[in-house]
Design brief:
235 residues, Rossmann fold, three-stranded antiparallel sheet, 29% helix
Length: 235
């Protein structure tokens, strides 16, 4: 049986924006009216875990209320012809809910929790969250530490980066979609693809200041860009 070509999708916040999920890099520098330093750093958790937990409980509820958009759905359909692996910066599970079977979350998955104990950023012990809210007093790991969202905060390591890098290096087709490529180290993935790889960058602000000349630019939203690219890839 013929092996399917390896297609890797690298998605960012613009991917989920069309599902109504806010990006954190707004023009005012706020994320749902919060400073990033107050809700998305280890220091914020140490200083005020109640506020951080409350913030992510609301984020989780917003994600549960959202639905996959056309871009998510088209990427899932690519599995009919390609061996598709998704690398996402997003902490939502919209790729999975659209039907994609292989998703690597670089920055974690808000539908999971992990211990807030020492070295929590490196833990591989994750706990599914059956409802929207985590409770600091009731929801604890076996060692007794409160459960925190399974997300990578600013200033923490990105444990999944090595796996993502290996996937990029194996790609025959590489699609970057809905990301400003402003967050490192993960933005460096665009430079790790093979020389013969077909590469595309879908974003309204796509330009060659962000990616090498190897990429074909599609200056559209995630859904509009995937409509254009889907027909090309399935032809």
């Amino acid at each position: 049986m013929k092996t399917k070509p390896k297609l890797v999708v690298f998605s960012g916040a613009g991917m989920s924006a069309e599902s109504g999920i806010q990006t954190f890099r707004g023009s005012d520098g706020l994320w749902e009216q919060h400073r990033i330093e107050d809700v998305a750093t280890p220091e914020a958790w140490a200083r005020n875990p109640e506020m951080v937990q409350r913030f992510y409980n609301q984020r989780r509820q917003n994600i549960l209320n959202a639905s996959p958009n056309l871009a998510h759905q088209l990427i899932a359909q690519l599995e009919n012809r390609y061996d598709v692996q998704i690398i996402t910066q997003n902490i939502d599970d919209l790729h999975e809910r659209a039907g994609s079977s292989s998703v690597l979350h670089l920055h974690g998955n808000i539908r999971l929790a992990k211990s807030s104990g020492p070295n929590a950023q490196y833990t591989a012990e994750f706990y599914p969250i059956q409802w929207a809210a985590l409770d600091l007093e009731k929801d604890k790991c076996p060692a007794g530490y409160p459960l925190r969202p399974h997300v990578v905060w600013f200033g923490e390591a990105v444990p999944a980066y090595a796996e993502a890098s290996a996937l990029a290096q194996q790609a025959e087709i590489f699609i970057v979609i809905g990301t400003s490529l402003a967050v490192y180290p993960v933005a460096g993935l665009v430079h790790e693809i093979p020389p013969a790889c077909q590469a595309y960058y879908i974003d309204p602000k796509a330009d060659y200041a962000r990616v090498p000349k190897q990429y074909r630019l599609i200056q559209q939203t995630a859904a509009q860009g995937m409509l254009i690219l889907f027909d090309r890839l399935m032809a």
